[in-house]
Amino acid sequence: MSLTSTPSTAAANAPEKSTRAAYKVTPARVLRSEWSKFWSLRSTWIAVGLSLVFVVAFGLIFAARYKSHITAGVTPGAQQEDRFASATAVSLSLFGVNFGQLVLGVLGVLVTAGEYSTGMIRSTLAAVPRRLPVLWSKAIVCGLVALVVGSVAAFASFGIGSRIITGTPAALALSSTGVVRSLFGAGIYLALVAIIGVALGSLLRSAAAGIAVLLGVLLLVPGLVSLLPTSWAQNVSQYLPSNAGDSIQALTRATHTLSAGAGLAVLLGWTVLALAAAAWRLMRSDA
């Protein structure tokens, strides 16, 4: 009688090999995960819809007011402090960006701070122990969506608004110098504001605190700077995030404002600074 086992017996006794693929965290998988979580939130759909409505609707309302101004026989600039004195089709159609930035900035805060308030961030960081890919992926997803939404809204507002103000001094065509650059500039500005919101939400880990700081930076600080002596205010205000963003969208450069390229560089600097602070706290503090 032989003591050696047959091949079929050895195979039966061998440890069962798992057929499931080994789990590996890659940047693409983290990005796909954040993309899925982003669109699973009801607040995302509401914010995207509101930002589209705000940018387009307020731009068209402003264009209609300008048209009625002209129809009434008032020459732009004839009245003191006339808001339509230097109006162009671009400035009229992008009036709603001031409102859209608030919605998309708040959305950015909620994308990160919301996970801390629900405790979901612990599951996220358990799945991605290196942590930083989570922050980069949230920033990419939110910034990309804001870029697309902002650009689409800016072009739609310009396209419809141009029909309203046809035949007026402010009328411009899409092929006019600087128009396409300004409209894409609006989309880039909204994307960077959304990314700053993501960074503030991750840094402060509170939706209320993040939204308060964001609104303060965009609305309150420019008002406080205007109280400084005139020469100081003119030198400082152009480097604020909101004013640098205005330079990116402006069709022509005004006095005491940055060029479009310099405005983009300054706003990128603010964005990198906010992300660096968020990354520092994410690596140093427990969730």
From TrEMBL:
Transmembrane spans: 45-64, 84-113, 134-160, 180-200, 207-228, 260-280
Protein name as it appears in the record: ABC-2 family transporter
Keyword line: Membrane, Transmembrane, Transmembrane helix
GO cellular component: plasma membrane
Source lineage: Bacteria, Bacillati, Actinomycetota, Actinomycetes, Geodermatophilales
Keyword Membrane set for record: yes
Cleaved signal peptide residues: none
GO molecular function ontology, one term from the record: ABC-type transporter activity
